[in-house]
Design brief:
With about 190 residues, the chain is α/β, with parallel strands linked by helices. It has helices at about 5-10, 10-20, 70-75, 105-120, 130-140, 175-180; strands spanning about 35-40, 40-50, 55-60, 80-85, 125-130, 145-150, 170, 175.
Length: about 190
């Protein structure tokens, strides 16, 4: 994607902020700060930097807020308040024991709860990998709260009649990483 295309997709607010600064050499506003808030019945850890319109950054699997560490100062320098979240079950955020506490509805609820805890009415939501799935569904289910989506490495897909794990590669030389973690005894599963 070209720089101009990316900027165009962020919208007029982003263009104005970028035009007022030198994107390549702009200084981030303030340093990154670690925080925790109560959201949707759990505590979410996040790192934030900058002032301005909010962009929530959702990491993929098996990552953490740290995946967005380079984007925080860049977005801050462009005039945004950027928040990289440790999603439910990751990093320093709470890890509910019950598997049924990790549905897309719970994850979207966490993002809505984060906005509520911060006193923010609307945000742009960005996601990478599994975080993109959360971002797409947050905007789909709560367009009043998430006005735009930035999705990296995962397009929006409607629900398939076939379980996703049935179409993932299962060859010796190509095993989709999600399947690896489904096997008993694999790292992360006992």
């Amino acid at each position: 994607m070209q720089r101009r295309e990316f900027i165009g997709r962020l919208g007029l607010t982003a263009v104005g902020a970028i035009c007022r600064s030198s994107l390549s050499y702009a200084q981030a506003t303030g340093s990154a700060a670690h925080r925790k808030v109560g959201a949707n019945g759990i505590h979410l850890h996040f790192v934030e930097q900058g002032e301005g319109p909010l962009i929530v950054l959702c990491h993929g699997f098996p990552e953490s807020w740290y995946s967005w560490r380079h984007q925080l100062p860049a977005l801050s320098a462009a005039g945004f308040r950027a928040i990289a979240v440790d999603m439910r079950g990751y990093g320093q955020s709470d890890r509910p024991e019950a598997i049924d506490q990790y549905t897309l509805l719970h994850l979207v609820g966490d993002m809505v709860g984060l906005l509520d805890a911060l006193g923010v009415q609307q945000a742009v939501i960005a996601g990478h990998d599994w975080g993109a799935v959360v971002a797409w569904h947050a905007a789909l289910l709560r367009p009043d709260r998430f006005r735009a989506v930035i999705a990296l490495s995962f397009p929006y897909l409607q629900r398939s009649p076939v379980a996703p794990t049935l179409v993932m590669p299962r060859r010796k030389d190509a095993l989709f990483y999600v399947l690896y973690f489904q096997e008993p005894g694999s790292r992360g599963r006992t």
